[in-house]
Amino acid sequence: MVLLQGINWAYWLTLQYEMVFEAISRSMRGMLAGLAGRLPYILAGLIVLLVFWLLGKLIRWIFLSTSRKARMDTQLRILISRLIGVFVFVIGLFASLSVVVESFNFGQVIAGLGFTSFVVGFATKDILSNFLSGILILWQRPFHIGDYLFVGSNQGKVEHIGVRATMLRKDDGEGVLIPNGEMYSSALTIRAAGKLRRMTLKFTLGFDADLERAKQLIQDTVTTLAGVEAEPQPGVLVTEFTGDGAMLTVQFWINTNQNKPLQVFDNVSIEVLKALSAARYEVNRGTSELIKELEAVSTPTRASGDGLV
């Protein structure tokens, strides 16, 4: 009995195998026949795609050649040329599909892409914002590599301008990557590379000081120091009166390509203090010292035969 059931199962599996094999063979023959029938259309579609690919290469070359003389950022030129090539290739891909597949409808694809583009755009709005801001920055060029920028709480020298973000190198050597969307929408303070930079030194002299003589002394000292530009000339002005005396403001200019601002400022500060000390000027005589002097005058002192009450 068991042997008979086994034979029946074997016979059934053999029939199923033959049916499956026949179905696969029939499908493969139909697919090959259909492929052979569509082979001319496939070759035509490949030729169309090749033509559009070559057309994209040609348009990219023409754009790069004609825009080389224009005052356009190199990265922006390369980006636009790549976008042109991708756009032309995508159009060629749709055109080749229209040739190969009879049921392919380009209009329906565009209609379907409308909603899809909306969903994708909403999900990637920050990326698109940074991308478009990067294109506008590269196009308008409000700042260049080497410029010193102040962006919110960040500051540093521009090291790289990308499509998505801009790299700043801070004074301590650390790099900060700022999204272009923030760069484009925020207020920027730009110190252009190679431009003259004005430095300001402030200090206070006592009310009894000869201000005219002090101003001339400071002017002569700063003018002769290395790193200070002769034009525009350094200037010394009385800008404020405080409880400690008259505040003098020294302004001088340096070339940021040739000198480091902090080093020049340090040298100017030391030399000005030396010159004022040699001329017996007291700089920044604080109110705390005046209070100590007043307390010393008002405090009784012990003398011979006197006693403290």
Descriptive key words:
309 residues; SH3 type barrels; Alpha-Beta Plaits; 3 domains; five-stranded antiparallel β-sheet; three-stranded antiparallel β-sheet; 8 helices; 18% strand
Set out the fold topology.
Elements: H1 2-67, H2 74-100, H3 106-123, H4 125-140, E1 148-151, E2 154-161, E3 165-169, E4 175-179, H5 180-185, E5 188-191, E6 196-205, H6 211-223, E7 235-242, E8 245-255, H7 261-278, H8 287-298
Antiparallel strand pairs: 1-2, 1-5, 2-3, 3-4, 6-8, 7-8
Helix pairs in contact: 1-2, 6-7
Structure description:
With 309 residues, the chain is α+β, with helices and mostly antiparallel strands. It has helices spanning 2-67, 74-100, 106-123, 125-140, 180-185, 211-223, 261-278, 287-298; strands at 148-151, 154-161, 165-169, 175-179, 188-191, 196-205, 235-242, 245-255. The protein folds into 3 domains: 29-102; 137-191, Roll (SH3 type barrels); 196-289, Alpha-Beta Plaits, CATH 3.30.70. The protein contains 8 helices and 8 strands. The longest helix is centred in the first third of the chain and has 66 residues, at 2-67. The strands form 2 sheets. It has a 5-stranded antiparallel beta sheet. It has a 3-stranded antiparallel beta sheet with strand order 6-8-7, covered by helices on one side.
